[in-house]
């Protein structure tokens, strides 16, 4: 299915294809591209296309990159650039499903870009592609990218980067950019991220200040975040600059137990990491939470990233602090916020939570 809205051909601007255009970063990127006068046409590819969101100069295409019958080449032909954002985080209980979309689907996108003669490919990698590293000082893009083997998300991000290594050698005519953002948040992503990471048993009102009594302070709890709109701006800038290679993306400051406790009006309590992991592992095995203990293991081992290359070569500067991005997300979480314009970000309701339970928390995409 292809749905076109308000596109007037001509004008000599860029034609940009966004694969995974209806998610957290995808919606921010589409809006940024609509506001970019150098972009003449946007093609948004998604498994579930919006019915009521009609951005100017945008064509919606229904396609599932996890399905080898999907005909991507025809949708990419004539594009000046492809931005590949599509990624499944669930089901953690069946990583063969995420592998099919994230790895095999990613390879299909890369091969389709080459077959269609697209000159630029911008891929959404992640801080999760990095091997365990330091929390006291940041590392640049040369840090090893072997991921954390215990988490499917990290294994897949790292494997796709190896696929891109081969792709670049075989297609030197294509400019390849890899974005490696920290954790990405905005108010409109709250409902989606609650479903993906916390599950249906987290009451929205519980995250109000002073209702969360404690934040565990444990070894390795220090990470980087940024606002979805700032991540989208980095992708947009990469379309206009003759850059290639990897770029770390994160806003200041790095977040730890003290920062999170201040946002939640909670007390910091020192806890052994093993105890927190054991509780999470038990909840995951019982299908009470969708986040796997392997992802927890990765988070407490991920390095801090040096973002100076993005600031220097892209001219990128985040407009939101990491603290503000988390604060906005928590506000959205308390209010059950989402984005009704797209299915992935839709807020849902009590019935939605019952459906999550009935279909097995962490067992479905």
Describe the structure in brief:
Helix content is about 35%, strand content about 20%. The chain has twelve helices and 15 strands.
Could you characterize what this model shows?
The structure is a single chain. The chain is of the alpha/beta class and 365 residues long. It has helices at 24-34, 73-76, 95-115, 152-170, 190-198, 228-240, 257-264, 273-285, 293-299, 308-314, 322-335, 350-358, and strands at 2-5, 14-19, 39-46, 58-62, 81-84, 120-124, 138-139, 175-181, 183-185, 214-217, 222-227, 245-249, 251-256, 267-270, 304-305. An eight-stranded mixed sheet has the order 1-4-3-2-5-6-8-12, sandwiched between helices. The chain has a three-stranded mixed sheet with strand order 9-11-13. A two-stranded parallel sheet has the order 7-15. Helix 1 (24-34) links the parallel strand 2 and strand 3. The longest helix has 21 residues, at 95-115. Mean pLDDT is 94; it is low at 1-11.
């Amino acid at each position: 299915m292809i749905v076109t809205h308000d596109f007037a051909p001509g004008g000599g601007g860029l034609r940009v294809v966004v694969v995974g255009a209806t998610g957290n970063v995808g919606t921010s990127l589409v809006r940024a591209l609509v506001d970019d006068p150098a972009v003449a046409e946007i093609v948004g590819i998604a498994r579930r296309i919006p019915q009521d969101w009609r951005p100017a100069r945008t064509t919606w295409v229904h396609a599932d990159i996890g399905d080898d019958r999907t005909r991507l080449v025809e949708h990419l032909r004539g594009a000046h650039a492809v931005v590949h954002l599509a990624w499944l985080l669930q089901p953690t209980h069946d990583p063969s499903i995420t592998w099919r979309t994230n790895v095999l689907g990613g390879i299909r996108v890369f091969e389709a870009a080459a077959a269609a003669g697209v000159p630029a490919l911008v891929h959404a990698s992640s801080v999760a592609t990095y091997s365990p590293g330091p929390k006291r000082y940041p590392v640049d893009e040369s840090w090893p990218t072997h991921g954390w083997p215990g988490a499917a998300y990290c294994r897949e991000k790292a494997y796709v980067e190896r696929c891109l290594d081969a792709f670049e050698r075989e297609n030197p005519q294509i400019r390849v950019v890899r974005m490696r953002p920290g954790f990405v948040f905005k108010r409109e992503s709250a409902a989606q991220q609650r479903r993906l990471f916390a599950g249906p048993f987290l009451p929205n009102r519980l995250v109000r200040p002073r209702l969360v009594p404690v934040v565990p302070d444990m070894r390795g709890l220090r990470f980087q975040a940024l606002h979805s709109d700032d991540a989208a701006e980095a992708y947009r800038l990469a379309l206009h600059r003759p850059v290639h290679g990897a770029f770390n993306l994160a806003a200041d400051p790095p977040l730890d137990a003290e920062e999170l406790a201040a946002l939640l009006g909670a007390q910091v309590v020192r806890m052994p990491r093993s105890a927190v992991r054991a509780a999470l592992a038990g909840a995951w095995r019982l299908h009470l939470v969708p986040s796997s203990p392997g992802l927890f293991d990765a988070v407490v081992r991920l390095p801090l990233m040096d973002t100076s290359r993005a600031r220097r070569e892209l001219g990128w500067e985040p407009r939101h602090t990491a603290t503000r991005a988390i604060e906005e997300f928590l506000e959205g979480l308390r209010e059950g916020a989402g984005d009704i314009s797209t299915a992935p970000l839709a807020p849902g309701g009590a019935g939605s939570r019952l459906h999550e339970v009935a279909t097995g928390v962490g067992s479905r995409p």
